[in-house]
Design brief:
The complex is a heterodimer of chains A (about 240) and B (about 100). Chain A has about 240 residues and is mainly alpha-helical. Chain A contains 14 helices and no strands. Chain B has a domain of about 40 residues. Classes of the chains: A mainly alpha (about 240), B mainly alpha (about 100).
Amino acid sequence: MIDINTDIGERPAVRTRARPVRDGVALGLAVGTSGIAFGAAAVGSGMSVAQACVLSLFAFTGASQFALTGAVATGGGLIGGAAGAILLGSRNALYGLRLAEVLQPRGARTLVTAHGVIDETTAVTLAQPDAAAARLGFRATFATIYVTWNLTTLLGAIGAGRLGSPQSLGIDVVGPAAFLALIWPQLRAGRAERAVGLAGAAIALAATPFLPAGVPVILAATAALAGALVSPRPGPA
Amino acid sequence: MTGIWVAVLVTVAGCYALKLTGLIVPRGVLDNPRVRRFAELVPIALLAALVAVQTFAAGQSLSVDPARLAGLGAAVAALLLRAPFLVVIVVAAGTAAGLRALGVA
């Protein structure tokens, strides 16, 4: 029998260095391009090109940015809009708890690392087999998505209304498919992980009709809370 | 316009502060096995929730976009076949784009 599975066939040393970078760059390019949609939405809502770019450069967390855009578009409640956007960013604090363990940032470097704590970097970092690969994955994803997201924000803001829909390219499926692929190994790892994933998805969907966009995803953290209370240690599959 | 700038800057400061908070929480907090397990499970719960919401939600209403659902289904099939990450993404986006181009979904 010839083993055609390259994941097994590649030498481990090559694999552990190449995979996190490849995963990070691929996800960064794929998801980062949705900055076009943000730039276009921001300018469409009444923000200036500069305001759209400041958000992408310094807030750098897509869901919060879209939330503020939505508040501006509906023409009021800017304080409420900012509060909603910040509330959405609270999941990054939860990600940071886990990433701090894996990445162990120190000193001034922590200030830079913090800026990169988002959905995509967390997913890629935690999908890696060891700490070295995790650090590499974090950096590759952060750098690629930061550059791509900011360039496409500018493009989208300048070209608002003149671009085709990202839907025709299937860009709207990239996020869900990528997140699913990245948590797949953890879902396979144990029964508790699968239960928490399913419960998180169910909670978010059930809450969607009743809560402002974005809040249902934060509420899904209660699934992790329940999982931690019921099964404090990783169990067998 | 000034109001928007204030909202933008408040959002920027708040979002960064939250990102930093998670990283600089004292390590001792994670010594408790339940807290550690919570930190491990949170990304799974939130990312699974994002998959569900980005697939089925349009603003505050739930809806089924056949092309998007087919794209995610293709991603699941690719994952079951142990396809590499990039292939999973391309298959998912390609399926949705293809179905829309054909006008099937």
